[in-house]
Write a structure and sequence with these properties.
homodimer; mainly alpha; Amino acid/polyamine transporter I; Rossmann fold; 2 domains; 5-stranded parallel beta sheet; 23 helices; about 5% strand
């Protein structure tokens, strides 16, 4: 298996680029100017305007046109929530100038690890959902304009995820310079739609024939429905934490850059959300299966011309960028958690291009699975969404409150008040989201979180136990050479065996060759050949009655252990063919690999592989 | 990966049973009495009556009721074809008393391997299709009675394939005794339906109100359509070769037993086909999407009572048995072809229970893929079917003709005439099937066959080249011990390193320890620790600038090669953690495995793994 992977190194070079040195990580070109960081880190939050209000209205769609005006109070509420969250997160950056999201804040302020694990697990789950939702919404945007691709949504979405993996394995800085502009274009498009709307309304009136009556209570409305709609609309607020997690990515002065970015982003998002929702209301745009609301509104203003195309495609691209920024977030968070031993250490390994390759690939795999399971339907994924984010928001707020109480400092009471208020709001939203969306999918997240947290705890415990087990006193315990019994597995008399026996004799002149035959005929033939070869060393022949090499070899080693030596002093040497072409591996080595794996696992023997490089 | 597999050995014991010794293969209880062999080996052919006539009529369904009578001539033609084929195959058994189907006959009678490869490849493809078609048809039969399962057809069919894998990994003889009786029950059911039909017709007349007019030419009929219907009906004839492939499975006298089985099977199949088709005609049963014709006929005679249930379930079971007999056929044929070096040798490995495990699992995987791709729809799979079988029939006939011409012997002219006639008929049918079904799916088979044949040729060529490359003159070339440079990879000072260094020093007192650090700090720390440990051997520290252990190590080895020794004389020793639980592997060894795989592939160095068995 590994062979195939390793063998593609040239392919990898072409797709992913030349390897980078560690110190390049700290070089200036990998650090982002805040105006460039804005589109990259904000794509996640800002792009949500493309589906947030629509997700909210979808909950009310069955009530008909009279419920359309509710988009205004709901969007208003989410904008207020947005400002509260941004303010809270700015407090976070003030408290931790070197950055760090909910996980670091919780780790620093809670003695027990559970709070930080809840934060990290819920964020990691939400990152996966962000990728799945954003990519699905992007494909849905394009499918609004080109219905022909609708049946292939899932496959296309998975292709996009694959593309993102490649881009992210290439590294952060490069994606930055490539990807900064499309987000600006999307922002410009949204502003253009909003301005066009107002100009239109200036000439045609702010209440148009299509405008539903404001404030009319639609039949069948309940508090629960409004809360549900609000919960769905809150999906527009995921992605706020990206900037606070990514402070180290900014150019100096980092703290100020990050705060500047937060304020700029908050303002532009608020304006966009309110303006967009307002025009949706004025034009009385309804939820449709085949066409996103953004696509409907753009169509009404610009027809199907070039402007419409730019809007659709920039929506698509910015949603893909949202998924892209999530890759950075996920892989960095998983690396931090892994370096605290709460996730497998493999997540801390940086790849050739200095990205955390394992995190990137894990995220992509999980997101692709979700896309496949939910058929790339944004509306089926939304109920799973947002709980994670609000859960981690809540924990971060509590952590910050604890910190202000402990550290105090300048204006600590104001800061405490802000985070306390933030805590109350986010806690309420978390409960509302979990409660209203429970049956529609939120339960999945509420089942997965405890599993992830227990996994983290188990991983940590395992690493701790192993560290203890491996610890030695360097003054007392020193290496001690010992006697070895050397066995060479031979399958006949040929060049690979020649090489292996030569190697074994270089190590130990008393090496013994072992041959396992499945019938008397082959055993006799081998004895004869060995004689003919001048008996380079002693040959032991074994009969494999189960047609397995493992069983007789295992019995032989058990006997050796009793009569001659400890198991750990038995050294088995065997050849392995190294093929020129990857598919030739199918034709060789099946038993060699099995024997090696079985013996390493079940016996305490040392196994040496002598590669024989096939020429053809 | 292998660990997980090997680790499940207890699970495997429970599911598959205790391992069997080689000689058990030849013991009597694995040999079949012909009356028992009949249901097992005939399930494939006999069960096809459940879908063959229906597949033929499906082609004519759009012509309406007036085309229903065509089932009679078409079935008549297939029964004639059946007798010709059985006669030809009996000639095959006479020529090769120890058995052997189209592949062995072709191998023995054609100088070039292409004919035998065409035969083997087309048979292997058809075995895969038999499993897919039979299992799908079985599920369809049950779905006729219980429409509620229809949406889950694919998943259920794949579950059946999985079940067959388990049964087949348990071995042939046991499946025999378990599975002999259901086929008899199915035969009894078919005979019961036919007798009930005749009794019914005795009292209600052989022409009933529902009987379509015989001989009326339906509007829109063409020769092509009739040929198409005939081609589809020929799918009822697949599976004839099973018996001739399986002669070694019979109890002595094998040849006579096999011929007896053939004659018994041919008679009962012919009676069933004709009787069944006749009643379908009399009752005017039409092709329906939701209900098989067999189910409709049974319903008309027996209502929905117990008899109907027995018929449905025995149809299901016999179709599953058809798939089951194919597992034996596929794995035996692939083992024979592999032992001729035309397929990877892994196919010749017998598993613990003496079945060819790799063949069994490959067949199951391919069939499951087909079922998933074609949504378990028998009618979509039928067009791919039968070409392979008739192609291999044709080749076998030519082979036998060549043999009679060469060997002559008693009554050789009669035998030659039979096979020559058989050749003409099967060749014509092959062309008809390929031509009429080309666009509906036969092209897939006609594309896959050349690919499989080229693969076989490539495999054979590879094995030949390797054998040549490995050949040595045992008198001239003898093993020669040489100087080695021993390197030990260390990651710190702990118990696993202690064990590895001890082992290395047991082999070579001049072993050198290598440490790769990613920054100056860790390198300095390691040097200090090593000193504190009393420098058990020389320590070389390397700086890994790419955060990769591979790059600096590789450069170091290149330097060693220039200054000190050949690459093949470098011996790298490294520890590997063996975990107690399989999932702990996710937490360890990622770099160790990567290093080992990379060095084996890219360098000519010998690699030794010293296992450290974690206690927890």
């Amino acid at each position: 298996m590994w062979y195939a992977v390793v063998n593609f190194s040239t392919f990898k070079r072409v797709v992913i680029g030349r390897p980078m040195r560690s110190r390049e990580l700290n070089e200036k070109h990998n650090k982002l100017f805040w105006m460039i960081a804005l589109p990259i880190l904000s794509a996640d939050l800002y792009s949500s305007v493309a589906y947030g209000p629509e997700a909210g209205l979808t909950e009310l769609a069955h009530l008909g046109r009279s419920a359309l005006w509710i988009v205004l109070p709901i969007t208003g509420a989410s904008v207020i929530l947005l400002f509260i969250l941004i303010l809270s997160y700015i407090m976070g950056i003030i408290a931790y100038p070197s950055g760090g999201g909910a996980y670091s804040i919780a780790k620093d302020n809670f003695k027990k690890p559970w709070a930080s694990l809840v934060a990290s697990s819920s964020l990691l789950v939400d990152y996966v959902l962000t990728v799945a939702v954003s990519v699905s919404a992007g494909i849905q945007a394009v499918a609004s304009a080109y219905p022909v691709i609708k049946p292939y949504s899932s496959s296309l979405a998975i292709c996009c995820v694959l593309l993102l993996v490649i881009v992210n394995l290439r590294g952060v800085a490069e994606s930055a310079t490539i990807f900064a502009w499309p987000t600006f274009v999307f922002m410009a498009c949204m502003i253009l739609i909003i301005c066009t709307g107002f100009i239109d309304e200036l000439s045609h009136g702010f209440v148009q024939p299509s405008t539903p009556t404001f404030g009319e209570i639609p039949g069948g409305i309940t508090i629960l429905l409004i809360l549900k709609a609000f919960s769905s609309a809150c999906s527009a607020l995921t992605g706020i934490e990206t900037i606070s997690n990514a402070v180290p990515v900014f150019r100096e002065p980092r703290q100020r850059s990050a705060i500047k970015t937060y304020i700029a982003l908050g303002s532009v998002t608020a304006v966009t959300l309110i303006g967009y929702a307002y025009h949706l209301y004025v034009r009385g745009v309804e939820v449709r299966e085949d066409k996103t609301m953004l696509s409907q509104l753009a169509e009404q203003y610009f027809g199907h011309g070039i402007v419409y195309q730019i809007i659709i495609w920039s929506t698509f691209i910015v949603l893909i960028l949202a998924a892209n920024s999530t890759f950075t977030g996920f892989s960095q968070l998983s690396a931090i958690v892994a370096s605290d031993s709460f996730l497998p250490r493999a997540f801390t390994n940086r790849g050739d291009r200095l990205g955390y390759s394992n995190g990137i690939m894990f995220l992509a795999g999980a997101a692709a699975l979700l896309i496949a399971l939910f058929q790339a339907q944004t509306n089926s994924l939304i109920p799973l969404y947002a709980i994670g984010v609000f859960l981690s928001f809540t924990i971060a707020q509590v952590g910050l409150c604890k910190r202000w109480l402990k550290v105090k400092g300048r204006m600590w009471k104001l800061k405490l008040a802000i985070n306390l208020f933030g805590f109350i709001v986010t806690a309420v939203v978390t409960v509302v989201v979990a409660f209203t969306k429970f049956l529609e999918g939120a339960w999945i997240v509420l089942v997965i979180l405890p599993i992830m947290i227990s996994f983290s705890v188990m991983v940590k415990r395992h690493y701790d136990i192993i560290a203890e087990e491996l610890r030695i006193d360097p003054k007392e315990t020193r290496p001690h050479p010992h006697e070895l019994v050397t066995l060479v597995l031979v399958s006949g008399v040929h060049r690979a065996v020649l090489q292996t026996v030569s190697f074994a004799q270089s190590l130990d002149s008393r090496a013994v060759a072992i041959y396992v035959g499945f019938d008397d005929e082959s055993v006799d033939k081998m004895k004869l050949k060995w004689e003919e070869w001048g008996e380079p060393c002693k040959l032991v022949t074994l009969r494999g009655e189960f047609r397995s090499i493992l069983a007789p070899l295992s019995r032989y080693i058990d006997r050796l252990e009793i009569t001659e030596c400890e198991q750990s002093n038995i050294h088995i040497i065997m050849p392995q063919f190294v093929t020129k072409k990857w598919w030739h591996n199918l034709l060789h080595n099946q038993s060699a690999l099995l024997i090696r794996a079985w013996f390493l696992r079940n016996k305490d023997v040392v196994i040496t592989t002598v590669p024989y490089h096939l020429q053809k």
